[in-house]
Amino acid sequence: MTSPPAVRLTALTRRFGEVEAVRGLDLTVDRGEIVAFLGPNGAGKTTTLDCVLGLSQPTSGAVEVLGLPPREAVARGLVAAVMQTGGLLKDLTVGETVRYVGSLFGHADRSSAVLEEAGIADLAGRRVGLCSGGEQQRLRFAIALLSDPALLLLDEPTTGMDVEGRRAFWAAIRRDAARGRTILFATHYLEEADQHADRIVLISHGRVVADGTGAEVRALAGGRSVRATVPGLDETLLGRLRALPTVDRVEARGEQVHVHAGDSDLVARHLLTATDAHDVEITSRNLEDAFLSLTQEAR
Amino acid sequence: MSTPTHPADAYDPAGRTPPRWGGFNRTLLGLELRRMLRNRRTIVFTILLPAGLFLSFGSTGQASDRVGSGNVAAYIMVSMGLYGAALTAAASGAMVAMERSLGWSRQLRLTPLHPAAYVVTKTLVALAIGAIAIVAVNVTGLLQGRPDMPAGTWVACAAVTLVSTLTFAALGVFAGYLVPGENVMQILGPGLALLSFLGGVFIPLDVGSTIWHIAVLTPMYGVAEVARAPLTHELPWYAVVNAVGWLLAFVAGAAWQMSRDTARV
Prior knowledge:
Number of helices of chain A: 11
CATH topology of the largest domain in chain A: Rossmann fold
Number of domains of chain B: 1
Largest sheet of chain B: 2 strands, antiparallel
Strand content of chain B: under 5%
Number of domains of chain A: 2
Number of helices of chain B: 10
Largest interface: A-B, 52 and 37 residues
Oligomer: heterodimer
Strand content of chain A: 25-35%
CATH superfamily of the largest domain in chain A: P-loop containing nucleotide triphosphate hydrolases
Distance between the termini of chain A: 42 Å
Strand order of the largest sheet of chain A: 5-6-7-3-8-9
Helix content of chain B: over 70%
Structural class of chain B: mainly alpha
Largest sheet of chain A: 6 strands, mixed
CATH class of the largest domain in chain A: Alpha Beta
């Protein structure tokens, strides 16, 4: 028996009046994956997550969560989410909030277990309104764990958390992912995506513009840069560099040359064998460059 | 291809079922009630204000004059119970809108809680809190000793009053959407007091006067006449039309605002 994927989005579009927030998005997330949904503000991340949760109806296209319609998956406690802001009652205590939401799933009380897991067991008696932003975020996390969901969606999950809280949070997430929980988190922190996700799905203007591991996404954005000092650099030498396969950009500043190419080895070999180049440096573009170039191309 | 030891098997969708009763349960009801009772403003509105109003209005010289099968003090007691219950029901209705503005309803939509189960819970809480208001006024009346009516009438008036408060729970939801935030009671409080004066809850109206012609159209008039009918044995048809009409109007308004709000998510 093959189990259905955690999430399957097919040609998903969502329009708000004139604005097309999501424009034909295809995405399949397998079970047990930790996937980062990376993109600038307004890229359509939150809208897509809302469709996965059944909070928003797609204008067209299909959404399937563990082989079920989103609302059915929510009703069975298979999918949960940690939202960025709001969603808490200030007049309840931390413990009451967890008992309240926990009672709705109709199975054994997991209140103390989730408070423990979110690291806020000692706050159970405190009014939510008196908790700090980071503590409230941990409470949202505890609530999301109540149903022991198969799929956990996180929208900018560590906003407001201090370094310590952030580390503890990701440790807890990894532990559950190892048990088979699927994690899909939206973020605009490149570092967070690169560090914690098995896979990065880069979206821009409502479409997927790159999909792969951190290294693959970097590579997609166009290989590496080769920098060298070439005595007697002239137009003839530059012309030969431009003619090399996979080279897409050559910049010269005095004797300094900066070549951008898909195959950096070829460029380096040419520089070292056919010219007097020295101080050859090869750098991989960082994720930030990849992010910028890919999200701008999609415009 | 998945192997038999696929870790995702720990999260088999077939092993999960939605809860019974759309998620409605005792813990939920208990916590909602506790929230209402913990709110100091609710306690003032529910117990102190109506009881205090009864003591001041109910101590008039004509308190022992006869009305229907009871006396004027009983008539005022029923009226004050209605006012207190309407006020608290409106307050609990307004809380629904406030919770939505806080994103709590969005949180709840990520659980199996069915919207109908939510509405039932909130209605039961509004009724429970309304019942406390009615009991508070009636106990005050008993202790004071002036109200006089047959025990059956006493119970009938209280029960009818309780049902009437649903109109104001719906009004609270509706108003809560129109006036977002925590300040809605600053409007509903004085507003309901004004409507109560107009509707003849505090001071009886002279039938046929100019003010009476306006009063019969306002939302407090109908329910006040209905709530006191077991005592007065008088229930004009236009009072019934008024009570039913406003109930439908407020329920429709609340439903309209709620659906608009859900669509926006």
